[in-house]
């Protein structure tokens, strides 16, 4: 598996606010936000359910990772997906950094990946 997730009650905007706040509490900021629903409508004329991708980054941990492996930027930031399901429920899914960063050899990266995962799991649990 390359992700872990949770179901959250509320509308997408409120859930997004909660996710961003929980990320902040773990030292993450949101660098990017992609509104997939709006993009698909604009570019392809397709109506989709609400779906957002947040690019989350903990600057201190990202800096350590970049110092250990300069090309690791290809695997950053940590993506968090907030999507509305068919039944109206909201799912928040997190990239599993341990699964993704195992592509990079080295114990320092493995240690960082475990740290990031535990922080993201705390974000999930806080929701």
UniProtKB/TrEMBL annotation:
<dbReference type="InterPro" id="IPR005180">
    <property type="entry name" value="DUF302"/>
</dbReference>
<protein>
    <recommendedName>
        <fullName>DUF302 domain-containing protein</fullName>
    </recommendedName>
</protein>
<dbReference type="InterPro" id="IPR035923">
    <property type="entry name" value="TT1751-like_sf"/>
</dbReference>
<dbReference type="InterPro" id="IPR016796">
    <property type="entry name" value="UCP021774"/>
</dbReference>
<feature type="domain" description="DUF302">
    <location>
        <begin position="34"/>
        <end position="97"/>
    </location>
</feature>
<dbReference type="Pfam" id="PF03625">
    <property type="entry name" value="DUF302"/>
</dbReference>
């Amino acid at each position: 598996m390359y992700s872990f997730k949770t179901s959250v009650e509320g509308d997408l905007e409120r859930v997004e606010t909660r996710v961003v706040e929980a990320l902040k509490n773990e030292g993450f900021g949101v660098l990017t936000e992609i509104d997939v629903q709006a993009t698909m409508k604009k570019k392809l004329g397709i109506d989709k359910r609400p779906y957002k991708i947040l690019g989350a980054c903990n600057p201190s941990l990202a800096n350590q990772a970049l110092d250990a492996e300069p090309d690791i930027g290809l695997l950053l930031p940590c993506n968090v997906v907030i999507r509305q399901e068919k039944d109206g429920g909201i799912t928040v899914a997190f990239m599993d950094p341990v699964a993704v960063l195992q592509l990079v050899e080295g114990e320092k990266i493995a240690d960082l990946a475990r740290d990031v995962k535990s922080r993201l799991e705390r974000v999930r649990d806080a929701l």
